[in-house]
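Margin note: ligand = glycinamide ribonucleotide.
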Amino acid sequence: MTSKKIAVLASGRGSNLQALLEAFPVHHTLAEIVLVISNKPGAYALERAKNVGVEAVYIPWKKGGQLEFETEAQRLFENSPIDLICLAGFMRLLSSEFTERWTGKMLNIHPSLLPKFKGLKAQKQALESGERYTGATVHFVDSGLDSGEIVLQDQLEILPEDTVESLSERLLLLEHALYPDAVRRVLERD
Ligand code: GAR
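Resulting structure:
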């Protein structure tokens, strides 16, 4: 079996990207991260990719510039070519044309037990809900908001003393194990 090529889209610090880079380094037999794209020029995610010699590309997402972003990203995906896209803290909504083109080949990680707490500030939503548990979900991306088929979830207990910061921090640790596991599961069933 040839190693699958993965591209990661990230908007920020990229700690989930880091977990993926460590799980699927260059020349890994199952899969390797070969391309990282960010819509933010200063995203630390780009540095993380460069640090391990992975191609890191900034593509601007100007106001109303979704099509331009997607066209350029698609061109890079076809160049490689890419087998799987992982969204890792990518804070933009992709068009349905784009998500449909990548049906079954694009994953996202979200910091809640979907279908609960979709969208922004999922950790704050969980904290304010009074629920005892929350977690993280890796799911396929479809044209809806955080609505595609769930691949894997993991949960943790919300503690009485939790703040958005402490909860987000514990969730991140869980995410860093969950995302590589989910990617493995998807690739091994291909
Ligand atoms: C993570 O908690 C990820 O689940 C979340 O953003 C954070 C990115 O952190 N994603 C979403 O909320 C997407 N709706 P990272 O840049 O350190 O990976």
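The chain has a mean pLDDT of 97.
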